[in-house]
Amino acid sequence: MSVDGWNTLLVLGGIRSGKSEFAESLVADAPTVRYVATAAAGDPEDTEWATRLATHRARRPGSWTIEETADDPRRLADVIAAAGSNETLLVDDLGGWVTVLLDPAHQPADDTATVEELAAALRASAARVVLVSPEVGLSLVPTTPLGRAFTDALGATNRAVADACDAVVLVIAGQPSWLKPAAAPRAAAVPAQAGPGQAGAPEEPAPSRVTGAPEAALPEVFTPTAPPAPAPAPPEVSAAWAAPTMALPMVATGLVIQPGMELPMPDDYAGPQAVDRLATLDVPGAGLGVLDRVVGFAAATQRTATPAPWASVRVLLLHGDHAGGAAAGAVPGESARRARQARAGRGALARLAAESGAGLQVVEAPASAPIEDGPALTADEVESALRYGWRLAEQAADAGVQLLVLAACSAGTEAAAAAVLAATAGAEPPAVLGRVVTESGEIDDAAWMTRCAAVRDALHRTRRSPRDAKDVLAELAGGDIAVATGVLLGATARRVPVLLDGPVGVAAGMVSRDLAGQARHWCLLPDHGGQPGVRLAADVLGLTPLLDLRLDLGEGATALATLPLLRSVLALAATLPVHPSLGGDPEDEEDFVEPEPAGPGPTTTEPEFAEPEPAGPGPTTVEPEFAEPEPAGPGPTTVEPDERVAVPDSPGRRAD
């Protein structure tokens, strides 16, 4: 969507006002759109009206599906009520719907009850719905009884629908004027974030709507842009990769994160159906091999047998160092430099994000105390970190993000993850702790032994401590793993799949089992990276790595490197025809429909990111202080004619 902050929207306008074009532009970037045509067929001899309908059809992408409700106006409420949260509906228009509703063929009928059913369906809808309707209240009162009946009925319908919708916009001469809310729900530029007490920083965080306590501002989301093609001579000044974005809106839900939460599960039937469907497609050779698991995963999480490639992707780069022996061998300040580099749009992770069209959000997690001496976090810090991660996932879902990628660049996080695996899976630390590699590429055995000793001492110190999820996070895991755990839980609650890649992600997956066992079913592991701890955790979690690339570019980089391949597999599965031997048309010359491109990626934290500014030197921002946040509160294609029937002597005939 190009406008966010709403789930249901009513677009009003007069004849030739541009209301339909405006409504179509709002859903142009949705993965799938179901166009609901409400009017009955027109007079076949009315060539001018047929030309108007043809113009409407020509504007619609071929990927849109069509639903017709002309035979039964009551079906419109049923279609809206049955639409899933991953669907987008465009209803065009209510003028034609009211015309059919008033048609004698549908009488006697309780028109008022039918309108109330439509309003109730909109209030309860989980899908995004855009409705188009003529605004007839500014015209003269019709001189005929039938004309007055139409305007009265349409006016009452518009009022009921406007009251039920989240937003209402009036289009006049092609210019939208937002009626509800009073201002358009668009992003507004704000200064780059600064730390408390510094120039440009807000005086006080906004208070929570639940407790009244200040909330922590969420970090910025950057959209790295791919660098220009190299010129024959290198340019004197290189373009920056990231543009500043808007501050995330803050929300609060009063959520309590506790063991045994009942969160959603992926669809049990859509995944197997999608894999079975692959066997019917015209796929050369042996097919997709192990990558059919990607299709099954995407189908289950999208709840459809024909899943679409993920268009909107966000990378959450967690940064929160671990003190003590866990960070042995790490160059002081290196992790902070990596975080600044990513925030500025440079480095391997930012380049891969740019190539994938993914947004990049650098998240500051609380620093962790030495685990060999005492708890890494206090109980309050654990609660705060979990809610912070949940809130990050919710904000991504509200922004229309379809896939999250967990990444990390913390010093000592490998040792903390090894401690978590040892505590939750009974592993021996040396068996799951990867080697320490210096800046020059050499293996540092002394640093590795120091890390092993720190994990051993931490496990000995906590040998009589409970092994509950929050206890493990407090005693051993630390801030980045706690925030990652909150992200997994929040993403599960909002049905957003997550790509794991590295020790932080799998350690969070291990901890999340006790809080909500459903979380692991929303995770996909593209590669184990050759790390023994990741291999073990994947086996315990039931995650089978798809590839064996053994890239060592930092956590999250391998997932981004494989993302184009995963998207290509989904595009093939969605567009290939049925094999001729199974009923497909051997002479089928239908053009290939290009899947929705990922685009340059989202740039704002408002739902559906805005197009990024041209690449230029991105301003540096001061990382926000981590403070305890409040918990957060994110079809088939039938494009049949939206034919209209003109009511005699009535302005009800749709003309735009």
What layout of secondary structure does this protein have?
Blueprint: E1 8-13, H1 19-26, E2 34-37, H2 47-59, E3 65-68, H3 75-82, E4 88-92, H4 94-102, H5 111-124, E5 128-134, H6 145-164, E6 167-172, E7 175-180, E8 221-222, H7 270-278, H8 292-302, E9 313-319, H9 334-343, H10 347-356, E10 359-364, H11 379-398, E11 403-408, H12 413-425, H13 429-432, H14 445-461, H15 469-477, H16 479-493, E12 498-499, H17 503-515, E13 523-524, H18 532-541, H19 557-575
Parallel strand pairs: 1-5, 1-6, 2-3, 2-4, 4-5, 9-10, 9-11, 11-12, 12-13
Antiparallel strand pairs: 6-7, 8-10
Helix pairs in contact: 3-5, 4-6, 5-6, 7-8, 8-19, 9-10, 10-19, 11-15, 11-16, 12-14, 12-15, 12-17, 12-18, 15-17, 16-17, 17-18
